[in-house]
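Hey,
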Amino acid sequence: MTAHADCNRAFVRIAEGSMHYRHAGDATSGRRPVWMMHASPASSRSVEPLALAVAALGGRRVLAPDTPGNGDSAPLRLADPELGDYADAFLRMLDALQIDRIDLYGFHTGAHIGIEMALRHPDRIGRLALDGLLWLEAKEREDYLAHYAPPLELDHAGTQVFRALQFIRDQAWFFPHFKRDPQHNLGGGAMPPELLHTLTVDLLKAASTYHLAYRAVFRHQLAERLPKLRQPTLLMADGGDPTRESVRRAAALVPDAATAIGGEGWSPDGLAMKAKRIVEFLDVAS
C-alpha cells in the first residue's frame, strides 16, 4: 500500500437520499464483506487506511459508509434519532447493495451503532469488532448531553469555522474536551495538522447534523444492551484511547468476548497491528 493509495468511492440511494461509502478489496472472494464504521464527527475517510489494510490482509471486500448526516451521506429524517435508527439505515444500505450478511468493525460511534445492528438484525451480522466504547453513568450522561456536542450554528462572520477547529483540536488534548483542566488532560501532543484539517472539514460538512449521532451514543444503555449480544465479539481499544476503561468494563458483560487493549493507535505501526487483530479475529470459523 503506497502513501497515496485510496479506496474507491460510490453512492447508494435509500429513502433518506444518497448515502456515500468507500470500498476496496475483492468483491468476488465469496467471503463475508467487512462493514467498517467511523467515529463522530468524521467520515469514512478517517478509516480509509485501515479499510485498505484489512482488504489487503484479509482478501475480502471492505465497505466503509459515511454515517447518515456525516461526510457525504444524507441525514436521517428524524429530529433526534437513536442508534437503532442509524442501524436500520445501514441495513437498508446493505439491502440496496444486495449484501445479505457482513462482518462488522466499528470505531467509537461506529462501535455503538454496530451493537444495535447486531441486536436488531442478528441474522445479517457474522462477527463483530468493537473499537472503543463510551460507558456513561447517569450524571456523566447529563453532562455529555449538555456540553459535549452543541449544534454548530452558522453565522455571517464564519465563527463556526474556528469553533469546529477548536472542537477537533481540543479532543486530542482533553477528555472530555469540554473539561479543559489538568485532571482531564490526555498528556499527548498536538494533532498532526493534516489530520486536524481533514477532521475539521468533515465536521463543517456536517455542521447541522454532526451532533445527532453523538447524542444517540450518549443515550446508549450499554449495561442493558451488551449482555444481549450473541455474535462472536472482539472488544478493542488502543493504549492511549480514553475509552479503554469503558471497554474493559464492557468486556465483562459480553458473553465470551475476546479483548485486545493496547497498541499505538492510528500510527503506521499501530494501524498494521490493528488490521492484523481485526483480520485474525474475523478469519476464525464461526
